[in-house]
Design goal:
The protein is built from five helices and 26 strands. This is Serine protease HtrA.
């Protein structure tokens, strides 16, 4: 099996890099050692690009001059319980640092949820070095998004323009502004390297439709904006891939699409929890690697696990009970139900299942058609609420 690059949260906590629990989905690579040279990015002239809206020509210098004041340095004081050798929990205080960007004149700032997770005090520093207290208004931990708010009185706010990742193509130029390793408002440039990647949120759920870029993103860039050639925000920088034990950039960074954030912004601004539909299964796409497994179909989503007490469990869906190892070295559970349709829509991959469930609300009903032992069956299932963290097992 090809070894996957390990996604690293691009936030900085006490000088150390936090490594995400699971491997990246859909990105192959090999382990290798990297050396990161930390230097402040020089603002050099770059080929000009034409704004899609106004026809204006902008350079990286132009965009930086206009938009860097809208990027803030986020500091979060966190307290965690550490275990002493004698079994006593000792509170340990540290500081997580990251980036964020202003989105309106009311003092709202977008960043990553993992930057402010567990924070007891949050401050943001603006481009004029003015530092003020901030509070978390709302969080979408499933997509690693947090909304902070500061009192706008007396602050010269510079909201960034929000764009869209829907029309972004591989090869499009992009810019990242953030605070890598505490170097405030550092600019890096690159291109969109790939689309529709999947990364794992700190709570274990998959973040879909992620942008991949080679613009240098390092610890401390978390929560900063990824901008298009017109200076519009198209993503929130969140994670990097690292091939070895180091936590530095190796040319593979990931940004959550700004469209994902805009979908939940109304709820976050009201301080309401973000609710998502939940089926309670994990599946594996049936592809050529399973040709020798004796499955009755060559396409579909093979159920690997069913969470106890979930909607899927209550409806009687079954997971595989036979453990097998493929020629690639991958472990797979065989013998489970194979989902072939949901609400009449053909299921070819596991992503199809996730996409349909993600489009629903808790309480919605779906019709799941599946094969069990080669026999076609169906079940009407009422979707539940997604829990705060992915269940293990």
């Amino acid at each position: 099996m090809r070894k996957a690059a390990i996604p690293v949260l691009a936030g900085l906590l006490g000088g150390a890099v936090a490594v995400a629990v699971a491997v990246l989905l859909g990105v192959g690579g090999t382990d290798h050692t990297t050396t990161t040279v930390i230097e402040q990015a020089a603002l050099q002239d770059s080929p000009s690009t034409r704004s899609a809206n106004a026809g204006e020509r902008l350079t990286a210098r132009d965009i930086y001059k206009r938009d860097a004041p809208g990027v803030v340095f986020v500091r979060a004081q966190v307290v965690a319980q550490s275990q002493s050798p004698f079994g006593f929990g000792q509170p340990q205080q540290g500081e997580a640092t990251g980036s964020g960007f202003v989105i309106d004149s009311a003092g709202d700032i977008l960043t990553n949820a993992h930057v402010v997770d567990g924070a007891v005090k949050i401050t943001v520093q603006f481009d004029n070095d003015k530092t003020v207290d901030a509070r978390v208004v709302g969080k979408d931990t499933d997509n690693d998004i947090a909304l902070l708010r500061v009192e706008p009185d007396g602050i010269d706010l510079h909201p960034l323009r929000l764009g869209s990742a829907k029309s972004v193509q591989v090869g499009d130029p992009v810019l990242a502004i953030g605070n890598p390793y505490g170097l405030d408002r550092t600019l890096t440039t690159g291109v969109i390297s790939a689309l529709q990647r999947q990364i794992q949120a700190p709570n274990g759920f998959a973040i879909r439709d992620v942008l991949q870029t080679d613009a240098a993103i390092n610890p401390g860039n978390s929560g900063g904006p990824l901008l298009d050639a017109a200076g519009r925000v198209i993503g929130i920088n969140s994670q990097i891939a690292t091939g070895g034990s180091g936590g530095g950039n190796v040319g593979i960074g990931f940004a959550v699409p700004i469209d994902t954030a805009e979908q939940v912004l109304p709820a976050l601004k009201r301080g309401e929890p973000v609710k998502r539909a939940y089926l309670g299964i994990s599946t594996r796409t049936i592809d050529g690697s399973l040709d020798g497994a004796g499955l009755p179909v060559r396409q579909g989503a093979l159920i690997q696990t069913v969470e106890r007490g979930s909607s899927a469990d209550k409806a009687g869906l079954k997971a595989g009970a036979i453990s097998a190892q493929l020629a690639t070295g991958e472990s797979v559970q065989l013998g489970g139900d194979i989902i072939t349709q949901i609400d009449g829509r053909r299921i070819v991959t596991s992503d199809d299942v996730a996409a349909i469930v993600s489009s629903k609300k808790p309480g919605d009903r779906i019709k799941v058609t599946f094969l069990r032992g080669g026999r076609k069956m169906s079940a009407e299932i009422t979707l539940g609420n997604r829990p705060s963290a992915q269940q293990s097992g």
